[in-house]
From TrEMBL:
Keyword Transferase recorded: yes
Protein name per its UniProtKB record: Polyphosphate:nucleotide phosphotransferase, PPK2 family
The organism of origin for this protein: Bifidobacterium minimum
Listed InterPro entries: P-loop_NTPase, PPK2-rel_1, PPK2-related
Listed NCBIfam families: PPK2_rel_1
Top-level division of the source organism's lineage: Bacteria
UniProt KW keywords: Transferase
Coiled coil regions, renumbered to chain: none
Polyphosphate kinase-2-related domain location: 116-313
Length: 335
């Protein structure tokens, strides 16, 4: 039976809301333990689904609905320091991430096993955002319990000379996930729309036609079994300024700072306008955009974790059956 989402907390004290959130997390934790101890495939999968539903019940409105881009939404109007849909605080959010990341690891193993057996199911996660929006932290925190086998991470910078000799999707296609794998793109083919527009490096006719090319490309991926999650981490200028100053102040973080970050910051409004049109033109039913407030790191990580885990559950995968005669295998092992 589907879990009923927690109330938003209207008319309740913060203490009552946190108690209810922690009760749901306690239930999810117990289901996760039982799933690990279960013997049968059906039992384990049923408990995994239950634990995922309990985790989802923490949200007053599923992130897939709350932060999905809808016609009429304006990027500049979205509060970057908000936590829409999550009724509790950082401590509960971090606990949610810890539990959810473990379940993500379980589902990743399941998808990988199916990929080995010929399934085309795979997942592409696209992370975009202004500098210092936390794209790298998303990867480290959400996948920290995952098996490196089955995860492919790639960051896209300015195209190399070789890449410029090909069409703009050439370098993207080379990094797509294999069957059963998860690929995480830190920046993506959308840079080939944004950058030419903001800096005027290519005629408008060139970058503008890429909207339709990208939509066709992502449609073909989804049709072939590749789920696509597109996330834009939105921060405000004051938050970015603080992050940049942290990098300048801390000798261990100075390697992250580049003067080009300041060039982009000076064109902030141009970037916001460019991304607004990207969302309007490429947020589709098969590959929607999710605009995630990211001033509070724990919140953005919780949202991405929820989006990822629920995407896995909708795949309805089961563990592949043994591909040989079990009795014969056991007989050979007894020799």
């Amino acid at each position: 039976m589907p879990m009923i989402p927690l109330d938003s907390g209207d008319g309740q004290s913060d203490k009552d809301v946190r108690r209810r959130v922690n009760a749901a997390l306690d239930g999810a934790g117990r289901a996760i333990e039982r799933a690990s101890d279960g013997t049968g495939v059906a039992e384990r999968l049923a408990l995994a689904v239950k634990s995922s539903e309990l985790l989802s019940s923490v949200w007053t409105l599923p992130p897939a609905q709350r932060v999905m881009f809808h016609p009429g939404d304006r990027l500049v109007d979205i509060p970057a320091d908000g936590t829409p849909g999550f009724p509790a605080g950082k401590a509960e959010g971090q606990r949610f991430i810890d539990l959810s990341s473990g379940e993500i690891s379980r589902f990743m193993g399941l998808m990988y096993a199916n990929g080995v057996r010929g399934s085309h199911r795979r997942l592409l996660i696209i992370l975009q955002g202004m500098d210092a929006s936390g794209k790298g932290g998303i990867v480290r925190h959400i996948f920290r319990q995952g098996d490196p086998m089955g995860i492919h991470y790639h960051g896209f910078g300015a195209p190399s000379e070789e890449e410029l000799r090909h069409d703009f999707l050439w370098r993207i296609k080379r990094e797509l996930p294999r069957d059963g794998w998860v690929a995480v793109f830190d920046r993506s083919h959308y840079e080939d729309i944004i950058m030419p527009r903001v800096y005027g490096t290519q005629p408008e006719s060139v970058w503008r036609e890429r909207y339709d090319i990208v939509n066709d490309f992502e449609r073909s991926l989804v049709a072939d079994g590749c789920s696509v999650i597109k996330i834009f981490l939105t921060i405000n200028r004051d938050f970015q300024k603080g992050r940049f100053l942290d990098r300048l102040d801390d000798p261990t973080k100075r390697w992250k700072f580049d003067v080009s970050d300041l060039d982009a910051r000076e064109r902030w409004d141009d970037y916001m306008q460019a991304w607004q049109e990207v969302f309007e033109r490429t947020s589709t039913s098969f590959a929607p955009w999710y605009i995630v407030p990211a001033n509070k790191r724990w919140y953005s990580r919780a949202v991405v974790s929820e989006l990822l885990r629920t995407t896995f559950t909708t795949m309805n995968l089961t563990w592949p059956a043994l591909s040989c005669d079990e009795d014969e295998a056991r007989a050979r092992l007894s020799l």
